[in-house]
């Protein structure tokens, strides 16, 4: 029987936290899903940890070209009608979150269900909730939607294509969401927290690359006015990235985050 949902976890040398991620899935009260772990050829014991749950998880391990190449591989071998990506280090928010999302099946016109995420292990010590109802405008100047907050119907990937990891190795999910929204696809926003999002991930460590990819995405998908505004804002963004890089461990930065971003 075809599962309603495929959950895909991408890993690479994630032995320290992959089990926590997997258990947050395996302990769900909802069970109409298959669970795939797409490993990039880990050598730190990650695969051995995954294999402890081989009766519940399908493991695929091979060298890849990054997170979004691995996510594409997961799409290729998945069977579910809906797909969800929860990468190593992230966790589902509670044991009932999947049941709460899918207890009422979405109509056939809905191809994206999304909600909120809560940051996890923010370097400032101040975790906070991210998420609201979005439009394409939310992607003009920043990350518009965390993929850990989104469930995508298979037919959306079939219509739009997979993640463009070659041109957007850090922001391929954002570029995909923009393509999706430009097509006028129907979405459903849920005012609930779906996952705990490990904030110090690929895009956090590669902020400058993320910035350059955003400029490329704007040039590809947005109007001349938006492209010009992004170019005008670029020096400010570069200075901000450098300040965060140099001050993220400081007491002043911790105070700033706690004052303005704490839930």
Structural summary, described in words:
Helix content is 40%, strand content 21%. The protein is α/β, with parallel strands linked by helices and 263 residues long. Strands 1, 2, 3, 4, 5, 6, 7, 8 and 9 form a nine-stranded mixed beta sheet that branches. Helix 1 (18-26) links the parallel strand 1 (5-11) and strand 2. Helix 8 runs antiparallel to helix 9 (224-247). The model has no long low-confidence stretch (mean pLDDT 89).
Features:
263 residues, 9-stranded mixed β-sheet
Structure, briefly:
The protein is an alpha/beta fold.
Topology of helices and strands:
Elements: E1 5-11, H1 18-26, E2 33-39, H2 46-51, E3 58-61, H3 67-77, E4 82-85, E5 91-92, H4 97-102, E6 110-120, E7 129-130, E8 150-153, H5 154-160, H6 172-182, E9 186-198, H7 202-205, H8 207-221, H9 224-247, H10 251-261
Helix pairs in contact: 8-9
What is the number of helical segments per DSSP (H or I, 4+ residues)?
A: 10
Count of DSSP E strands? 9
The main sheet comes to: 9 strands, mixed
**Helices and strands: which structural class?**
alpha/beta
Sequence of secondary-structure elements: EHEHEHEEHEEEHHEHHHH
Helix-residue proportion? 25-40%
The proportion of residues in beta strands is 15-25%
Q: Point out poorly predicted stretches.
A: none
Shape designation? globular
